[in-house]
Amino acid sequence: GENVEQHPSTLSVQEGDSAVIKCTYSDSASNYFPWYKQELGKGPQLIIDIRSNVGEKKDQRIAVTLNKTAKHFSLHITETQPEDSAVYFCAASITSGTYKYIFGTGTRLKVLA
Amino acid sequence: ETGVTQSPTHLIKTRGQQVTLRCSSQSGHNTVSWYQQALGQGPQFIFQYYREEENGRGNFPPRFSGLQFPNYSSELNVNALELDDSALYLCASSLPGLQETQYFGPGTRLLVL
């Protein structure tokens, strides 16, 4: 069935360092890949997304890359700050019919000051 | 803040009871999706509503049901509650023509005893 694997499950970095989170999806029909940040007690917040016709997208300190052939996509956060500490989820979706997300299992990022 | 609101924020029920959770979508958003997020896991798709009709369902039993109203707000009903139904229930809304981009509310934390 449809599945999204996400690694690592936990990640600790020093403030100012970069963080990379990787996801692999199983459904080759997937063509939309959002990333969400979830802070304690809150709902997921969309931070960046990428469509399958694009290989890379950047928004300030955050970037996402997509390798459709390998069915991999990754989140890159540069110059990490303590407020980046949260749980990050990747998801895969097909942009037709039912727009349901298949989520990864999450990565708990800790940025150490 | 996404503009998606959910009520109540928390509630406690006992096994066998029924519960109704509510979601008000962001203004202009006509698609609402519901997800169940167990502790430490990624959200799991329950179902989606578009223009008051169910538009796809995940792997959840029929005791999970929903409604969408003409103002696009939505309800999730769960009958015959089980202990495993304890979770954070999230709703997400999307704009017409951009249904793949979903904006989540803060969630309702349900505890079944």
Structure description:
- The complex is a heterodimer of chains A (113) and B (113).
- Helices cover 0% and strands 56% of the residues of chain A.
- Chain A is mainly β.
- Chain A is globular and about 45 Å long.
- Chain A starts with a strand and ends with a strand.
- The model of chain A has no long low-confidence stretch (mean pLDDT 94).
- Helices cover 0% and strands 56% of the residues of chain B.
- The mean pLDDT of chain B is 94.
- The radius of gyration of chain B is 13 Å and the shape is globular.
- The relative contact order of chain B is 0.34.
- In chain B, strands 2, 4, 5, 6, 9, 10 and 11 form a 7-stranded mixed sheet that branches.
- The A-B interface holds A 4, 6, 32, 34, 36, 41-46, 49, 89, 91, 93, 95, 97-106 and B 2, 4, 31, 33, 35, 40-45, 48, 55-58, 90, 94, 99-107.
Task: List key phrases describing it.
heterodimer; A: 113 residues; mainly beta; six-stranded mixed beta sheet; five-stranded antiparallel beta sheet; globular; B: 113 residues; four-stranded antiparallel beta sheet; 11 strands
